[in-house]
Amino acid sequence: MLDKISEFYTKSFLLHGATSQGVGWKDVKSQDLRFEQLCKVISKQDEKRGITINDFGCGYGAMFKYLNDRFQIRRYYGYDICSDIIKAAKENNTYKNAVFIISPKVTHTADYSFISGTFTVKLATSTKIWTNYVKNTLIDISKKSRKGFAFNALTIYTDWASKDAYYADPIHFFTFCKQFISKYVSLINDYPLFEWTILVKKEEYYK
Predict the structure, then answer these.
(1) Quick count: other Cβ atoms within 10 Å of Cβ 28?
(2) Residue 198: its H or E element
(3) Which of 33, 129, 138, 193 is deepest in the core (most CB within 10 A)?
């Protein structure tokens, strides 16, 4: 399943390079708007002190640059399944606090974890199988996130749909996170993109 996804993104990246289009996004403006929503999971206290980050499905490292410009990042771990894209991420981000890893799973524990656009493309995988993959991934990443994590997905409330993309019900995933991961869950569904963002905070967030 993930081999096909890797092949899809590798082809797109080789065509467009280290750009938002190269990882399936429209433009930098919409990409930054997504990052802005995701970063709302970071506490006010942590905005001013050093934090560690997991970025699952990091692409060429665009979110690292966004985070590094705005927060004190002690360590950033970026994960992707595409070797060509990870190679570019390492070349484009030579900061000592950034580590890029070829992996289908998060392997380090960090204060916060982010999943931006990683669940968008499912190709021929059935919606049921992909939904189970998403849920299992969220549970795994929660275990690797001390204070919280945030993720986004395309919404089922859209004017059009691509057969290769995954569209998710925000209420379904809000309920899932509340029932199985944490009682501290927020849904952001009021920004001008056909998607939603969920913030999940852990007990440690409030200490």
Answers:
(1) 13
(2) strand 195-201
(3) 138
**pTM of this prediction exceeds 0.70:** yes
Strands (E), 5-141: 51-56, 73-80, 98-102, 110-115
CATH number belonging to the domain at 2-206, selected among 3.30.70.20, 3.40.50.150, 3.30.365.10, 2.50.20.10: 3.40.50.150
Structure confidence by residue, pLDDT tens digits, 6-50: 888 788 777 766 555 545 556 788 999 999 999 999 999 999 899
Give CA angle at 152 (43, 145), nearest 5°.
Answer: 45
Q: Rounded CA gap, 79 and 106, in Å? A: 7
User: Please, which residues have CB within 8 angstroms of residue 21's CB and are 6 or more apart in sequence?
Assistant: 12, 27
